[in-house]
Design brief:
The complex is a heterodimer of chains A (about 220) and B (about 210). Helices cover about 80% and strands about 0% of the residues of chain A. Chain A is mainly alpha-helical and about 220 residues long. With about 210 residues, chain B is an all-alpha fold. Chain B has a single domain, classed as MetI-like fold (Orthogonal Bundle). Classes of the chains: A mainly alpha (about 220), B mainly alpha (about 210).
Chain lengths: ~220, ~210
């Protein structure tokens, strides 16, 4: 490939409407899939955490599920839902569920038994324990799972272009097809920047959401 | 599933390609990452920049990183392997630093007292004791590389991703599954065997850790 790598900047400036459309599609795919993923995964994880016997299977299944390539998940929704935004959103949501579910489950189960016991001793019922003790203490771990899912999905949303889902991956594929590094990078660089920005933003959220009682002084 | 049964030879060839991509990348990442990690433990101010850079690299979406490298490396296995190396660096460097940091300072002191030079301390104490943690990093890097290598097929690097892309193009779920299952199995197998290796390293190390 020939050409000045920085040509992507004038390309973006010269195609603002297209770029903004693809960029916002990318953000929508990521944010929506994570939000829906949270709504599915957290209740599931809470239910699973109540059953002791599930500990082994849940962690093993989550680990195994994560090894399925994101591209395969996108590809397998093709026969089911066809091409476009909604199938991509579906695949991305499926991808987001696992990290959130695993972290929520591990976070709740990982709460110090002594703390749970103290709550029980204070007369708290199961639901009160969940909302007033277990979930708050597990919050940093849960948000870390959401962070992982978000950054991962910015990457997976790049692949949505393969099933017509739009997003910045569209520019990458266009650039590859036309052997034009400017278009290629016009997709790749913003996607990379978006992923890094999402990671930093969610990391900050995580630090903010640590319950006051758990904060380490000066950390 | 039926594709796997119909063309086992092609699946096998692509699997070998996939293993080659991932293995080469992880090995090179170890050759770069472990020395870098050791350097960071000796030159503390490097820790932030090095680990943050590796972290940023890991965050970049795979298709994006492959794409960004293509103007420099061309198509084929090269951008894929370079990208996979860059992705693997974070886990390996971070775990090398953590593993060496976790060595009981009293043991280092004893080693110093025994007259060991810096290099002897590294080779005889820090690396052997840090090995389980370093291996855990290699394990994470390997599983991660196997997954990311899937997309590499699109830039001409071969591997099992070829089947998945084929399947997407022809809307053939069979072919997608025929690509996805071996990838999963590869990842799980690597994870399991590196976990066993790590366990063996830990058992080897624990008795000589001096009642720690």
């Amino acid at each position: 490939m020939r050409g000045n790598p920085f040509d992507f900047i004038p390309y973006i400036l010269g195609h603002q409407e297209q770029f903004l459309r693809l960029f916002s599609q990318h953000v929508q795919l990521t944010v929506l899939s994570v939000v829906i993923g949270i709504l599915i995964a957290i209740p599931l994880a809470i239910m699973a955490s109540r059953v002791d016997a599930l500990a082994g299977p849940v962690t093993w299944l989550a680990g195994a599920g994560q090894t399925i390539p994101s591209l395969a998940i996108l590809g397998l929704t093709l026969p089911l839902l066809g091409i476009g935004f909604v199938p991509s959103l579906f695949a991305l949501t499926v991808r987001a569920v696992l990290p959130i579910l695993l972290n929520t489950y591990v976070g709740i189960r990982g709460v110090d038994r002594a703390i749970v016991d103290a709550a029980r001793g204070m007369g708290m019922r199961s639901r009160q324990r969940l909302w007033m003790v277990e979930l708050p203490v597990a919050t940093p771990v849960i948000v870390a799972g959401i962070q992982t899912a978000t950054v991962q999905n910015v990457g997976t949303a790049t692949l949505a272009a393969f099933i017509g889902g739009g997003g910045l991956g569209d520019l990458v594929l266009q650039g590859l097809a036309m052997v034009d590094p400017a278009i290629l990078l016009a997709g790749a660089v913003p996607a990379a920047a978006l992923a890094v920005a999402a990671d930093v933003l969610m990391g900050r959220c995580r630090r903010l959401l640590v319950p006051a009682g758990l904060r380490v002084e000066g950390a | 599933m039926s594709y796997l049964l119909a063309r086992p030879d092609r699946v096998w060839t692509l699997t070998l390609e996939h293993v080659q991509l991932s293995a080469v990348a992880v090995v090179v990442a170890i050759l770069i990452g472990v020395p870098l990690g050791i350097l960071v433990t000796r030159t503390r101010w490097l820790e932030g920049p090095v680990i943050n850079t590796a972290g940023v690299l890991y965050t970049v979406p795979s298709l994006a990183l492959f794409a960004m490298l293509i103007p420099f490396t061309g198509l084929g296995a090269r951008p894929a392997i370079v990208a996979l190396i860059l992705y693997s660096l974070l886990a390996i460097i971070r775990n090398t630093v953590a593993g060496i940091d976790a060595v009981d300072p009293r043991l280092l002191d004893a080693a110093r007292g025994m007259g060991m030079t810096g290099r002897q301390r590294l080779m005889l104490v820090e690396l052997p004791l840090g090995l389980p943690v370093i291996l855990a990093g290699v394990r994470v890097a390997t599983v991660s590389a196997i997954g990311i290598a899937t997309v590499a097929a699109y830039v001409g690097a071969g591997g099992l991703g070829v089947l998945i892309f084929d399947g997407i193009r022809t809307i053939d779920g069979d072919r997608i599954v025929a690509g996805a299952i071996p990838i999963s199995i590869l990842a799980l197998l690597s994870d399991w065997s590196l976990a066993r290796l790590g366990g063996a390293a830990r058992r080897d190390v624990a008795p000589s850790a001096g009642g720690a």
